[in-house]
Every structure is written in structure tokens, then in C-alpha cells.
């Protein structure tokens, strides 16, 4: 089994998984605290539109996907501000429209073929050096924003009205953070796939919320858990000849169930 480390594709897959495992909870913890945890799942489904559009236009699907996701994220944020009572329903509509449009475009595109499965569920074999660069850029941008604007992001996540009252530029901060959330989703698709990227963002964040004793503690636990799940999931995917996305998510879901049961019996 140790011969897997001799393959370049496995090294790229492991590095991508570790970077994504670090990146997704950085965004997810703030989204979960903001009760916006459905956003990554909605954007991941919208990404099908960007991928198919890029193939149809014969332009980089990665760049087109990022542009489509950022536009969809900003549109969702604008709609949420206009009708905050229906935020969860609006996310469901955005996801459905993005998925429907993506399916229509896929039916008109000849560029998917056997790659459709890797887009939907992730694949160790399809991670390229360019993907690693994209994930690294996303991680650096998100880390920089969290480091510089941590207090502002925390205030907005916990109480948006209070943050606005104390002079925090809520609107601008939200737009930048939502755009970086879209970039995170675009970066994670290669590892977890369209259908499971949302769970990769949310599950480590929930584990952090259950195990952390403060928001900073939650963030640290979530990031550590995300990295651990990605590492274990990638090995499981290789050994079992499985798509990495489902392997990582099932491990995370199992860990989440154990933590919930452990807390219940400990009370």
C-alpha cells in the first residue's frame, strides 16, 4: 500500500486535500455562525453552470466558474438583504436555478464525457498543478482576510445589527467575504466534487462548534478536523478505489455522530 506515495497524482491529491481541508473550515465557521451554512452547497451546484459555460465557450472552465460563483454569491447576498426573512428559501432557489441551467448547458456541451463523475464527486486523478496553485491562492486570500478582519467578521457573524451600530463596514466586509466564499467553493470542487463541497465546508465547522470552547477555539478545532478528515479520506479513497469527496464526507459524518452521542451520554 505504501507504493501509493510513488505516484505524482497521489501527492497532488493529498496536497490539494490538505489545503482544502484547511481552507473550507476557515470560511465555514463564519458562515455557520451567521446561519448561512447552506450557501456553499448552493454555490457548489451553481458551479456546474460555470464549468459547462467554460467548455461551451472554449475558455478556462476554472476562471469562468469563479466568475459565475462570485456573481451568484453577490446576487444571493443582495437578495438576502432585500428579503432577509426568506434567506434560506432564496438560497434554495439560487441552487435550483444554477443546477437547472448547468444541466441544460451540459446537455449542449461535448466536453464533459467521463469527466462528469470527477466534477460531481471529486477525483484524485484529475488534480493538476494549476489546481494546487488556485487552492493556494484562495487559502492565502482567506487567511489574510481572517487575520486582518477577524474582529469585524466575528461581529458580523454573531450580530450584524450590532456590527453596523458600532461602525463596522458590514456591507463591504460581507461582499468581500462572500466573494472569497465563492472562491473557496470553486477551489474545493476538485477534491470534494459539486455535490459534496458544501458538506466539506459545514461538517468540520460543526465539529469545531461542538468541541471548541470559544469562537477562536471553534476555528482551530474546525481547521484541524478539516485537515485530518481530508488526509484520512484521501487514503481511504485510494485504498478503496473510491471518489475522495464521499470518502471524506462519510468519515466526517461518522465523527460528527460520535461527538454528538459522546456529548449526549456525558450529560
UniProtKB/TrEMBL annotation:
InterPro entries under this entry? ABC_BtuC-like, ABC_TroCD
Q: How would you describe this protein's topology in the membrane?
A: Multi-pass membrane protein
Localized where? Answer: Cell membrane; Membrane
Keywords in alphabetical order:
Membrane, Transmembrane, Transmembrane helix, Transport
Domain of life per record: Bacteria
**Where are its TM segments located?**
9-31, 51-75, 87-107, 135-158, 170-189, 219-239, 245-262
Q: Which residues form the signal peptide?
A: none
Q: Which GO terms describe its biological process?
A: response to zinc ion; transmembrane transport
- Pfam families for this protein: ABC-3
Q: Would you tell me the Gene Ontology cellular component terms?
A: ATP-binding cassette (ABC) transporter complex
Family that this chain belongs to: Belongs to the ABC-3 integral membrane protein family.
> What's the protein name?
Metal ABC transporter permease
**Annotated organism of origin:** Ammonifex thiophilus
Native organism taxonomy: Bacteria, Bacillati, Bacillota, Clostridia, Thermoanaerobacterales
Amino acid at each position: 500500500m505504501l507504493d501509493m506515495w510513488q505516484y505524482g497524482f497521489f501527492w497532488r491529491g493529498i496536497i490539494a486535500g490538505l489545503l482544502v481541508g484547511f481552507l473550507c473550515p476557515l470560511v465555514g465557521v463564519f458562515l455557520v455562525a451567521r446561519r448561512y451554512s447552506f450557501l456553499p452547497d448552493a454555490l457548489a451546484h451553481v458551479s456546474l453552470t460555470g464549468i459547462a459555460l467554460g467548455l461551451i465557450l472554449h475558455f478556462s472552465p476554472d476562471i469562468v466558474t469563479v466568475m459565475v460563483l462570485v456573481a451568484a454569491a453577490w446576487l444571493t447576498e443582495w437578495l438576502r438583504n432585500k428579503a432577509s426573512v426568506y434567506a434560506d428559501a432564496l438560497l434554495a432557489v439560487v441552487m435550483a436555478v444554477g443546477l437547472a441551467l448547468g444541466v441544460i448547458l451540459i446537455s449542449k456541451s461535448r466536453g464533459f464525457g467521463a469527466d462528469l463523475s470527477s466534477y460531481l464527486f471529486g477525483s484524485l486523478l484529475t488534480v493538476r498543478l494549476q489546481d494546487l496553485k488556485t487552492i493556494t491562492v484562495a487559502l492565502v486570500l482567506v487567511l489574510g482576510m481572517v487575520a486582518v478582519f477577524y474582529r469585524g467578521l466575528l461581529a458580523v457573524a454573531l450580530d450584524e445589527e450590532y456590527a453596523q451600530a458600532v461602525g463596522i463596514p458590514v456591507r463591504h466586509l460581507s461582499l468581500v467575504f462572500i466573494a472569497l466564499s465563492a472562491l473557496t467553493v470553486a477551489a474545493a470542487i476538485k477534491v470534494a466534487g459539486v455535490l459534496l463541497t458544501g458538506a466539506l465546508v459545514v461538517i468540520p465547522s460543526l465539529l469545531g462548534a461542538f468541541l471548541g470552547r470559544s469562537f477562536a477555539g471553534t476555528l482551530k478545532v474546525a481547521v484541524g478536523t478539516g485537515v485530518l478528515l481530508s488526509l484520512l479520506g484521501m487514503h481511504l479513497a485510494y485504498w478503496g478505489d473510491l471518489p475522495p469527496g464521499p470518502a471524506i464526507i462519510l468519515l466526517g459524518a461518522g465523527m460528527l455522530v460520535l461527538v454528538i452521542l459522546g456529548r449526549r451520554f456525558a450529560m
